[in-house]
Amino acid sequence: MLPTCCPFLFAGNIFVVSLSVADLVVAVYPYPVILFAIFQHGWKLGDIHCQVSGFMMGLSVIGSVFNITAIAINRYCYICHSFKYDKLYSHRNTICYLCLTWVLTFVAIIPNFFVGSLQYDPRIYSCTFAQTVSSYYTIAVVVVHFLVPIGVVTYCYLRIWILVIRVKRRVKPDEPKLKPSDLRNFLTMFVVFVLFAVCWGPLNFIGLAVAINPQAVAPKIPEWLFIMSYFMAYFNSCLNAVIYGLLNQNFRNEYKRILMSLCSPRLLFSDLSKLGTEAMKSKPSPAATNNNVAEMDV
């Protein structure tokens, strides 16, 4: 457990871990059953498995969107409202924000069962959200699950960029100073956001176009375009780990350690024993403040 003197480190890490969990959900069940459907040339698992697969896929997608939004708001508060940050993101408040993020994710998925929009699509061998079931519901999904979060995240990052430019140009002498670690963490999550928008944008805009006029637009959407947009969205879940490794030295070091441990299991047990020993010996420094903690990478 992190000491109470590290609110940014705790809040920043917990939302990143939550985003990672959302990305991993698709690997637990939806991806394996999709591979099974591909090998079987169709869906052979029944309607229950289809609904479960579609639900978990939605859980991953919407969970990723809402966690990216929560991370952007967290970065915005930390950089642009640093004096209020400790109060806004105390340990208790952070846990509440995290729980709220996942509660909203579940609430956003439940209507699919009433509308009947989780169906098997033979073009992509998966049970997923059917865009043609209800025009109004499809529009609501695109707006609530994509356009609104994208708007919130864009606003947060634009405000951060404006502050960064002001600090570099020293427009105001009382502007808060930004440490290199702050900029690296911001840049990492900004890239994650941009890639998410690029990967999920085509599928959402196709859904929006189909929802506006299903009979006229749906037949004109080329099958290859729909398949490409769908698998672009799938591929996004694999990209975040790559971005973390490319832009964050701590993640690169941990990746190397894990790979070395897989090659030599003795190293894994040795690292675990060392980690336990160091955790027992280490004590949180009473001198840690929000200023020096910010120098650590998330």
Written description of the protein model:
The structure is a single chain. This protein has a single domain (7-240), classed as Up-down Bundle (Rhopdopsin 7-helix transmembrane proteins). The longest helix is centred in the first third of the chain and has 35 residues, at 46-80. A hairpin with a 4-residue loop joins strand 1 (118-121) and strand 2 (126-129). Helix 1 packs antiparallel against helix 3 (46-80). It has 298 residues and is mainly alpha-helical. It has a two-stranded antiparallel sheet. Helix content is 78%, strand content 3%. The two termini are 15 Å apart. The protein has helices at 7-28, 30-40, 46-80, 82-88, 91-109, 111-115, 135-169, 180-212, 214-217, 223-247, 249-263, 265-281, 290-293, and strands at 118-121, 126-129. It is built from 13 helices and two strands; from the N terminus they run ααααααββααααααα. The chain crosses the membrane at residues 7-32, 52-73, 94-115, 135-165, 186-212, 224-247. Pfam families: 7tm_1. One of its GO terms (molecular function) is melatonin receptor activity. InterPro entries: GPCR_Rhodpsn, GPCR_Rhodpsn_7TM, Mel_1A/1B_rcpt, Melatonin_rcpt. This is G-protein coupled receptors family 1 profile domain-containing protein.
